[in-house]
UniProtKB/TrEMBL annotation:
Purpose: The lipid II isoglutaminyl synthase complex catalyzes the formation of alpha-D-isoglutamine in the cell wall lipid II stem peptide. The GatD subunit catalyzes the hydrolysis of glutamine to glutamate and ammonia. The resulting ammonia molecule is channeled to the active site of MurT.
Organism: Saccharopolyspora montiporae
Record protein name field: Lipid II isoglutaminyl synthase (glutamine-hydrolyzing) subunit GatD
Annotated pathway: Cell wall biogenesis; peptidoglycan biosynthesis
Family: Belongs to the CobB/CobQ family. GatD subfamily.
């Protein structure tokens, strides 16, 4: 059976692209390729009219406060992302992307900004930046253990319509209730950089299965990820000297 290439949207990397989260697009494309499925990366810059609503999966990275506000204004104007979400398209929002997709956020200067409201999560600045490795047990079915690197000032409280992405075993995460991230339907938000999908291919495959609407054949994990998945080993982080 031939199928159209899976369209992977990278949303506003010129605003929310500080932390290399565009690598998540490469991971999705490669995991499809290994299964003989073509994909097409669709980069949506802030000079575009709007986000095309016809893509199969959407990636939004992290960034600075000012860039987040510009991103909300852009996304609110066009409405393409919101329409894609309402037809069930999966979205991954990382860090600043989480805050943009949430109900609202207070920036470091104390100003309050409305978010897109695609996930029930409200963010305010914490006492200091949360920086370092994170491990957590995902709340989503087969995803298991997640790892990543956090670097954020914001602390996020979930409302009753969102579930956390995971229960934190190391690191700060949302900074409330021992949890990390926010999930609502097929909108998955996390503070984990890494890029997160390179470190957690099982999450990449979940997003892809939602995107194409069918199960994917499993791929073997590299040994270091297999060790993490079994949870028999602790995460070893080699500090740079
Ligand atoms: N500006 C946000 C914060 O510090 C997001 C940072 C990020 O995307 N890493 O909370």
């Amino acid at each position: 059976m031939t199928r159209d290439p899976v369209r992977i949207a990278l949303v506003l990397p010129d605003l929310l692209g500080t932390y290399g989260d565009r690598g998540n697009v490469m991971v999705l494309a490669q995991r499809l390729k290994w299964r003989g499925i073509d994909s097409e990366a669709v980069t949506v810059l802030s000079s575009a009219q709007e986000v095309p609503e016809s893509c199969d999966v959407y990636m939004i990275g992290g960034g600075e406060d000012v860039a987040q506000v510009a991103a909300v204004n852009f996304l609110r104007r066009g409405g393409g992302l919101q329409r894609a979400v309402s037809r069930g398209a999966p979205v991954l929002g990382i860090c600043g992307g989480l805050q943009v997709l949430g109900t609202g956020f207070v920036t470091g200067d104390g100003d309050e900004h409305e978010g897109l409201g695609l996930v029930d999560a409200w963010t305010e600045p914490g006492a200091g930046r949360a920086i370092g490795e994170v491990t957590e047990h995902a709340t989503l079915g087969a995803v298991g253990m997640l790892t990543g690197f956090e670097n954020h000032l914001g602390r996020t409280v979930l409302g009753e319509h969102a579930q956390p992405l995971g229960r934190v075993t190391r690191g700060t995460g949302n900074g409330h209730d021992g949890v990390e991230g926010a999930v609502s339907g097929h909108v998955v938000c996390t503070y984990l950089h890494g890029p997160v999908l390179a470190r957690n291919p099982q999450l990449a495959d979940l997003l892809l299965e939602w995107a194409i609407g069918e199960p994917l054949e499993p791929l073997p994990d590299p040994p270091e990820l297999r060790a993490l998945r079994t949870q028999r080993t602790r995460l070893h982080v080699r500090e740079r000297k």
